[in-house]
């Protein structure tokens, strides 16, 4: 059944993100997927795609500025890789889940029935759309606070989860071997809604590291991180 977010829930979400909009319509638009607008012809607020476009650019600037000041020892190429891992779909979707964005979405019936509230691509786009909405509603400083509170501070605490260790490991191995690295899922633990993956990374039949994560990608990254420590 399609679920409609009410004004009380909008206020609850503002409290959750610690930003209260001057123009509430901007927040509603940021939370509105195109599918909802297609079904609600009298819905005048519009969908979030333009806000997502703007938010994407604002996010990249905020993250670039943060990394430039915070990681003074990293070279340009390393900063670029780190920024890419921070603003990727998986990272932003995880940030969106931390503030339970999926609960507050305006979705069409089809998206609702096919798990749109938990789809990484939708959550990522909404997270960026909210950045764009805050930027328009006030200024980049408030947008920066939102990004730091709900994305960057978590990256600082779990730094290894957001660096592309798979690429780093591959580059390290390729210095002395042309034989590819292999990743293998050894085990899937838990129910579908709370599954954990155990992944092994090996090279020339030698196990280099094991990793566990909520997705195969996360488990692979952690396995690569362990491997980097072992070689």
Please characterize this protein's 3D structure:
- This protein is mainly α.
- It has 2 domains: 7-162, Ribonuclease III domain (Ribonuclease iii, N-terminal Endonuclease Domain, Chain A); 165-230, Double Stranded RNA Binding Domain (2-Layer Sandwich).
- It contains 11 helices and 3 strands.
- The protein has a 3-stranded antiparallel sheet, with helices on one face.
- The N and C termini lie far apart (52 Å).
- The model has no long low-confidence stretch (mean pLDDT 89).
What share of residues are in beta strands?
5-15%
Coarse shape: globular
User: What CATH architecture of the largest domain would you give?
Assistant: Orthogonal Bundle
Low-confidence stretches: none
Mean pLDDT: 89
| Secondary structure category | mainly alpha
How far the N terminus sits from the C terminus, by CA atoms, comes to 52 Å
**CATH homologous superfamily designation of the largest domain:** Ribonuclease III domain
Q: In the CATH scheme, what's the topology name of the largest domain? A: Ribonuclease iii, N-terminal Endonuclease Domain, Chain A
- How can the largest sheet be summarized? 3 strands, antiparallel
CATH class of the largest domain: Mainly Alpha
The sequence of SSEs as H and E is HHHHHHHHHHEEEH
Considering DSSP H and I runs of 4 or more, what fraction of the residues is helical?
55-70%
Number of beta strands: 3
Strand adjacency order, main sheet: 1-2-3
Count of separate structural domains:
2
Radius of gyration, in angstroms, nearest whole number? 20 Å
Secondary structure tally, helices: 11
What's the multimeric state? Answer: single chain
């Amino acid at each position: 059944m399609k679920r409609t977010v009410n004004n009380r829930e909008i206020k609850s979400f503002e409290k959750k993100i610690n930003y209260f909009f001057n123009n509430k319509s901007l927040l509603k638009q940021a939370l509105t997927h195109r599918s909802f607008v297609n079904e609600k012809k009298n819905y005048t607020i519009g969908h979030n795609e333009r806000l997502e476009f703007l938010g994407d650019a604002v996010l990249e600037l905020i993250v670039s500025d943060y990394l430039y000041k915070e990681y003074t020892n990293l070279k340009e190429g390393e900063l670029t890789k780190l920024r890419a891992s921070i603003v990727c779909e998986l990272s932003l979707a995880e940030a969106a889940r931390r503030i339970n964005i999926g609960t507050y979405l305006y979705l069409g019936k089809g998206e609702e029935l096919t798990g749109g509230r938990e789809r990484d691509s939708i959550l990522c786009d909404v997270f960026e759309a909210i950045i764009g909405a805050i930027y328009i509603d006030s200024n980049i400083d408030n947008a920066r606070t939102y990004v730091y509170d709900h994305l960057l501070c978590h990256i600082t605490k779990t730094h290894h989860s957001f660096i592309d260790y798979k690429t780093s490991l591959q580059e390290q191995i390729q210095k002395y071997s042309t034989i590819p690295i292999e990743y293998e899922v050894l085990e899937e633990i838990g129910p579908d809604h709370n599954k954990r993956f155990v992944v092994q990374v090996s090279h020339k039949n030698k196990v280099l590291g094991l990793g566990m994560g909520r997705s195969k990608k996360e488990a692979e990254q952690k396995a690569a991180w362990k491997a980097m420590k072992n070689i």
